[in-house]
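The following block was generated as part of the benchmark described in Methods. Ligand: iron/sulfur cluster.
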Amino acid sequence: MGCIDHKRTPLNEGDGFNAFDAMEPRLPEKTPVDRRNGKHVKANDIPPEGVYLPNNNILAPHMKSPEYVQLSNAAAITLGIMGGRMYGCECTRCLNLLLTYPEGCRANCAYCGLARHREAERDYADRNFIRVDWPAVPMTDIVDIVGKDPDNSPFHRMCISMITHPRSEEDTFAVLRQWTDRIDPQAIPVSILSNPTTMTRDDVQKCKDLGADIFTVALDAATPELFDRTRGKGVQSPHKWKKYWDTLLEAKDIFGPEKFGAHIIVGMGETEYEVLQLVQELVDLGGHSHMFCFFPEEGSLMDHLPATPRDQWRRVQLARYLIDYRGVRVDQMRFDEAGRVASYGISDAELNDVIDAGIAFRTSGCPGKFQDDISACDRPYGDSPPSDIASYPFPPKKKDLKKIRRQLDIPVSVE
Ligand code: SF4
């Protein structure tokens, strides 16, 4: 079996990968008392009216889940409640919903635009998250639109993203109930992107009982050390790796094989070997990994740091796809002294076929109705600008595949 080896440039710090030492987040600053806990918004108490578009330059109205949810720009355009077009895609296949409160998420994750420290400068409903704005919409409006014809909806899946908030569980259940009362989860299945910090095992079970199909844990950081630095003590945030892992194991028991997984952000300081070991561990448990490429979100505690170099991201994207969907094991792969993938453990011909199919480079996430390895959740430009795409929200075309091969340093021509 021949393997494609990478040509390597000499190892300089920060060359070809985001090293741990270079990826230190800023420390959060103190929030003025009059801005803490959404005080600013609650004091004005402007009642919400219909759809709220971020950056309206007014005080964010006092919107709360479960009556209100935020949804991605892509979902709002697809739903027809916002105008706009997305580069390369007509619509998104996943209706991503986010719980919303005037006091916002109470955690302080370093890479996240929704983090608590931002209350000093932006009202919660106006904060950017994974590079885009999230309009707030009454849940009844969403259910009314989708409920008219769920079988012919552009959406292949709905996903409720929890945040860190004392009402997060109860409101997730309420949103889920509101959905399944009107929309058959067989027609549009539901995923839960959980916030384990405030969840019990019973809460995980309840998500299943109320009709959720897949349960994922937003692990985000690939190692316990990185987790602590970006989501825990390092940034005055409440999360703990062990709690996240325990919840993932509960989801494995309750939801079963292929129905649970973890989100991972690549390029926050882990090595390629470390993140791919984690991917293997998830596959060995029966689950999947859903990956994001690190992008310095404006206003976050990591907005001064470099996005993941494309060569690092492509290697991990390709290797993750092989482990997740092609039965290749991490121990068949080879890594260099910096933990970078040096070969993928399959023949050149097989590797070329996988690259040319292009699926490995598309957004990863819970499946839609096309096939198991094509995610419904395409998160258009959630981890990169359209000018330098990290996760393709559409099937990569010939010119995209040529670019990907250059980034991978695998210069085989594409027919
Ligand atoms: S818990 Fe989630 S939403 Fe809240 S700051 Fe962390 S990553 Fe952002």
